[in-house]
Write a structure and sequence with these properties.
Strand content: over 45%
CATH architecture: Beta Barrel
Helix content: under 10%
Radius of gyration: 25 Å
Structural class: mainly beta
Number of domains: 1
CATH topology: Maltoporin, Chain A
CATH class: Mainly Beta
Number of helices: 1
Shape: globular
Order of helices and strands: EEEEEEHEEEEEEEEEEEEE
């Protein structure tokens, strides 16, 4: 089986933004902090691939494709403090569009009680857009100094793999495992791309009970899981290393059949050991704000419609 979709995309942006500062007494003060920006982008995109079922156990897939992304308004015209990241962001109205070429392949295997999938990808992105702090640049606002992040771009690569392994020796029990890795490099400068997640694995053991013919419960389950995030030391020059960490998670839930409606109840806990950790992708890591500690979530899902017993 193969496919060959082809597309064309065109995008244009014309903005003229004016920012107003807070007023003092009855006098309003304003200034133009965003420059006039008129841009136009267009590109072709396409993809092709094939799937080969080598046997009743193994399947192979291979895909080639190209992509396109135009810079957004924030990347083109930002010029101010971002309250969510505690950074002063400066856009670049001369940014070019991103174009990418990607190749990915995967192998899947499915036995009676074991299934596995391995996927690898290579993505070359022309004019990849991202933020970085250059030479420790800062700005003083209201007597507080903030780091300045500018939108830059360069030809870059993103490569990596994913591996999933599921054991289910008996139907009610599933032990799901996965490992993910990605590596980013600015090929123009030879410097690693910033904000790239570290190698991490996820492991979940789930037990689903069979539905009782007498009770209202449908497929109740209980699960326990672990996340292992390794240290990230392959970083851009303005970043700092991020230590590895371990998270313990658990959840339980069920569907309930009440009259002609089926509801879902669940309760889930994450980071049950209350580990102190920084996610390498966290924008608050620079000011010493940890990711959330232990947290419990409970919920009820009531779908629209009427349940029809089959």
């Amino acid at each position: 089986m193969s496919s060959l979709p082809i597309g064309y995309t065109s995008f244009s942006a014309k903005t003229f933004l004016i920012s107003f500062s807070p007023f003092w007494a009855v006098i309003f003060w304003f200034s133009v902090t965003f420059i006039f920006c008129k841009t136009s982008f267009s590109s072709y995109s396409g993809s092709t691939g094939f799937t080969w079922a080598a046997s009743g156990v193994f399947n192979f897939k291979f895909n080639l494709g190209s992509g396109f992304r135009a810079p957004n308004i924030a990347e083109l015209g930002s010029n101010g403090l971002h309250p969510g990241t505690i950074r002063y962001e400066i856009g670049n109205p001369t940014l070019k569009q991103e174009n990418s070429l990607q190749a990915d392949r995967s192998v899947t295997a499915d036995w009676h009680w074991v299934s596995a999938t391995f996927s690898g990808f290579y993505n070359y992105i022309f004019n990849y857009i991202y933020q970085r702090n250059v030479d420790g640049e800062t700005i003083l606002l209201n007597k507080i100094r903030y780091p300045v992040y500018r939108f830059v771009q360069g030809n870059s690569t993103l490569t990596g793999f994913e591996f999933e392994l599921d054991f289910h020796p008996i139907e009610p029990i599933h032990f799901e495992n996965s490992i993910d890795y990605v590596q980013g490099t600015n090929e123009t400068t030879g410097v690693p791309l910033p904000f790239i997640p570290s190698l991490h694995t996820v492991h979940d053991l789930k037990w689903t009970l069979k539905k009782s013919n007498r009770g209202p419960l449908i497929s109740p389950y209980i699960s326990v899981g672990a996340e292992i995030h390794f240290a990230q030391k392959r970083i851009d020059t303005f970043e700092t290393n991020t230590a590895g960490y371990f998270l313990l998670n658990a959840s339980t839930g069920t569907k309930i059949h009440l009259h002609n409606q089926v509801m879902t109840l669940f309760i889930a806990g994450k980071n049950l050991t209350n580990s102190k950790y920084f996610d390498h992708l966290s924008r608050l890591k620079e000011i010493g704000v940890y990711n959330p500690g232990w947290n419990i979530t409970a919920g009820v899902i009531i779908p629209f419609g009427v349940y029809e017993k089959k």
